[in-house]
Specification:
Helix content is 47%, strand content 14%. The chain contains twelve helices and eight strands. The strands form two sheets. The chain has a five-stranded mixed sheet with strand order 6-5-4-7-8, sandwiched between helices. It has a three-stranded antiparallel sheet with strand order 2-1-3. Strand 4, helix 10 and strand 5 form a beta-alpha-beta unit. Helix 1 crosses helix 5. The radius of gyration is 26 Å and the shape is globular.
Amino acid sequence: MKIKETKLNWTLNVVARVVVGLVFLFSSFVKGVDPLGTSFKITEYLTAWSPFGISLEWLTPLAPVMSMGLITAEFLVGVLLLTGAFRRLSAWLLVLMMLFFTCTTLVDAITNKVTDCGCFGDAVKLTNWQTFWKNVALDVPTLWIFLTRDLRRKKRFERDVLITIFAIVAMVVFGLYNINNEPCIDFRSWKVGNQMIEMDENAQVKSYVTYRNTETGETEEFLSEELVKRMEEPGWEQKWEWESSRVEDPNEIKADGFSMLDMDMNDHAKEFIGSPDYLMIVTIHHLDKVKDPGVEAMKNVLVWADANGVQTVLLSSALPEDVQAFLYVNKLDNLDFYFADATAIETMLRSNPGFMLLKGGKVLGKWHYRHADDVEDVKLD
């Protein structure tokens, strides 16, 4: 199908390239800030999906490479669209990527095997159906870009090659930096400066119950104290039907699924996170992947903590006997340890091991084990 070369058609092509290009640049940047987070999401997909009964788990070791490949490809397409470089190539890449994204998110929305696609990293959270319709909306300008890819096309090979090389190198360097450090921009709940738990002793836990009106079909949420009075009204049981309930705890930790379990499965999360004293949490989400520099960093941080009277605990997702063996072999067996889900730990710190300093429920600092020496620069009250 050949599109007539008019000023309007060319203008629409430019507008479409700018819109889609900016979306791709934003998407690649927020994922490039945290490539490990994207690799975790890819691993989740590979584990949850089995197309035609074929398991994809054997690909999980390649998740970090696939993450960088996806992020770099998105960034490259965004740059090519905005600069007009290699317009035929960028149009084909865009169509293929959007076809893949649209089909994937449709299946994901229907099956809900992965609840968050991670298309905008941790910066913007969308439901599966919102993600699918977002892709459908982008498919419209994508199709126009593809159909008008030859309008006013100029051959500028050397310029386009330089733009392509720059885009690839820039994102690879940016991504590798964030892989070998904590993300340069933190979009997660455990961001430095965040208050993870409120310290209001007078705060009250509130219970809410949602009922549906059997006559109108409308739902209404009641505070439990108010509900007692409403239920005394004549005909209440015939008009209202229970649907759901929730509890609102002002002193709840602001991180879904976070816990600090001891050997007896008692949760000490509130006790530690809400402590008015300094607390250094050493996190290990994959015990078998801790390297010698990481162990050395742990020892140095423990020396600093002991010298400054800072309580230190280890938070791991490994089995108790494995943690005990690890601490014994590395002469760290005086370190108290607790357990949490690996995903919850990865949300706290990407580094393995990593270090987080808190006081009064507030995150004061986070360090990759490669920069554990920076802990010594912390000025305590």
